């Protein structure tokens, strides 16, 4: 059986299998070597994610995933005074929830590689335009996510990763290192563009390579076609 890579997160994960998405790129990269499983839930925060754990990662499962990415925080950081107030999770609870998710997965198998991903930065101006287009709000009246607040959640995510001794991708910081990141890395002020998806893919590949999950280090699930006994496939050497 191929090892499983489970992508667990919110809409940024759910959309990762779209054209140019980081999940789609990961699936292509590990074709015939790993099954990449999408478990992204648009609009979800870490509080709601906790109630999915037993369904997605059931105890007693004979085969734990080899890799799990945990990519929440964009919705947890939503302001309390806006259209998305129901998604808000206080910072201390966000950290606790992330720790619980990691503990649940590690309880199933200490061998599972857990990778945290911080929320990316947000472009407040673009989100105001998005609020006007989707909700009919005037840009000046739209209460949107704040990049500074999102940065606090990104830092909290990094702190949890250090405490749990798991790798983390600090998207919030690395994306803002490029001038013009607001347009090059984000499609609507919150979600990722194709270039933004490429950043996630590149950073994730670096972590996988460092932890024994490089494409080259992993085995094919069945022999390559050039090694198949063409006359009697059942006698192919494994």
Overall 3D shape: globular
Going across the major beta sheet, what is the strand order?
2-1-3-4-5
In CATH's first tier, which class applies? Alpha Beta
Q: Output the CATH homologous superfamily.
A: SGNH hydrolase
Number of strands: 5
Strand portion:
5-15%
CATH topology: Rossmann fold
Radius of gyration: 20 Å
Q: Which whole number gives the mean pLDDT?
A: 90
Pfam family, one: Lipase_GDSL_2
Family: Belongs to the 'GDSL' lipolytic enzyme family.
Domain SGNH hydrolase-type esterase: 7-198
Keywords: Hydrolase
Structural notes for this entry:
This protein is an alpha/beta fold. It has a single domain (4-235), classed as Rossmann fold (3-Layer(aba) Sandwich), CATH 3.40.50. 40% of the residues lie in helices and 10% in strands. The chain contains ten helices and five strands. The chain starts with a strand and ends in a 28-residue tail after the last helix. The model has no long low-confidence stretch (mean pLDDT 90). This is SGNH hydrolase-type esterase domain-containing protein. Residues 7-198 form the SGNH hydrolase-type esterase domain.
Short recap of the structure:
The protein has 238 residues and is α/β, with parallel strands linked by helices. Helix content is 40%, strand content 10%. It has one domain (4-235): Rossmann fold (3-Layer(aba) Sandwich), CATH 3.40.50.1110.
């Amino acid at each position: 059986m191929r090892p499983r890579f489970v992508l667990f997160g919110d809409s940024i994960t759910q959309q990762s299998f779209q054209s140019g998405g980081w999940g789609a790129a990961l699936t292509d990269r590990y074709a015939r070597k790993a099954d990449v499983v999408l478990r992204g839930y648009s609009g979800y925060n870490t509080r709601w994610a906790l109630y999915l754990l037993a369904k997605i990662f059931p105890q007693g499962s004979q085969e734990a995933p080899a890799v799990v990415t945990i990519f929440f925080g964009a919705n947890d950081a939503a302001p309390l005074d806006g259209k998305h107030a129901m998604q808000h999770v206080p910072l201390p609870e966000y950290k606790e929830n992330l720790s619980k998710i990691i503990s649940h997965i590690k309880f199933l198998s200490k061998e599972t590689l857990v990778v945290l991903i911080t929320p990316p930065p947000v472009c407040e101006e673009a989100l105001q335009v998005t609020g006007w287009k989707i909700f009919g709000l005037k840009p000046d009246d739209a209460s949107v996510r704040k990049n500074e607040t999102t940065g606090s959640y990104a830092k909290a995510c990094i702190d949890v990763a250090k405490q749990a001794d798991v790798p983390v991708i600090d998207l919030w910081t690395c994306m803002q290192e490029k001038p013009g990141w607001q347009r090059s890395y984000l499609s609507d002020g919150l979600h990722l563009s194709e270039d933004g998806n490429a950043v996630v893919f590149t950073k994730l590949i670096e972590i996988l390579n460092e932890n024994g999950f490089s494409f080259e280090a992993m085995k094919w699930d069945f022999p390559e076609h050039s090694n198949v006994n063409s006359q009697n496939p059942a006698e192919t050497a494994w």
